[in-house]
Amino acid sequence: MKNTFTHQVVIVTGASSGIGAATAQAFAAAGARVVLAARQQERLRTLAATQPDQFLVVPTDVTQDADVTRLVETTLWQWGRVDILVNNAGLGMRAPVEATPLADAQYLMDVNFFGLLRCTQAVLPHFRRQGRGQIVNVGSILSLLATPRNGIYAASKFAVRALSDALRIELHGTGIDVILIMPGYTDTPFFENQFRYGGPARIGPLRGVPPETVARAILRACVRRQREVVLTFPGKCGAWIKRWCPRLLDWVLARQRDRT
């Protein structure tokens, strides 16, 4: 996809590692200028040093209104436009619903859902003025099906899917795309950094697909203006079973619960 995104400006939240960092690098390799947004300023600067002419670092906490406003205003002041927003910032939680502290659940929703909403609302006036733009929301296969001990996280990703569907309809005919990316098991620090109440960070020895695979899917989705993308074969199978054989899926996941 070399030069596919030349002259375009892309904001990537959660860009300090994992899917966010890989997506930022992929857009830069395809010719875009990329705004790196996350709380980990030093990691952002390390990434930006690899291609200083194409990266702009704007330390951002998506739970803070002022940070998100500054993110968009700094981008417009520096580069004069925003073409694509990748809402990738997020965190995980592994705990039974009944054992989840309410404050932790509220914080997770503030990052995964309200942070995404803040960023989306911040760029939409600019997208409307220029008559085009793309909002890429990074959900999860858990936007389609919930699994044991992931109830709160899945709820946040179900909310992202619902918001994406409603916003897509609201923006119909404006030239603004809403794209939902639903990765499956991905090899990133996400699992080690999640809220966890007992049990291992990962289930089983598999590491998942590389984050670069998700990044390539995001770029393809932008080029093709896709609505939704489900990644990984197990994720696609799970979505199919959830739709057509939900009781079977419940049985399979219950057996997995009993082994972990």
Sheet-strand content, in percent, reads: 5-15%
Query: Structural class, from secondary structure content?
Result: alpha/beta
The CATH architecture would be 3-Layer(aba) Sandwich
Summarize the main sheet. 7 strands, parallel
Would you state the CATH class?
A: Alpha Beta
| Number of strand segments | 9
Mean pLDDT: 89
The number of helical segments is 9
Helix content: 40-55%
Radius of gyration: 18 Å
What would the principal axes of the Cα set say about the shape?
Answer: globular
Low-confidence stretches: none
Distance between the termini: 41 Å
CATH topology: Rossmann fold
- Overall tally of domains: 1
Order of helices and strands: EHEHEHEEHEHEHEHEHH
CATH superfamily: NAD(P)-binding Rossmann-like Domain
In short:
The protein has 260 residues and is of the alpha/beta class.
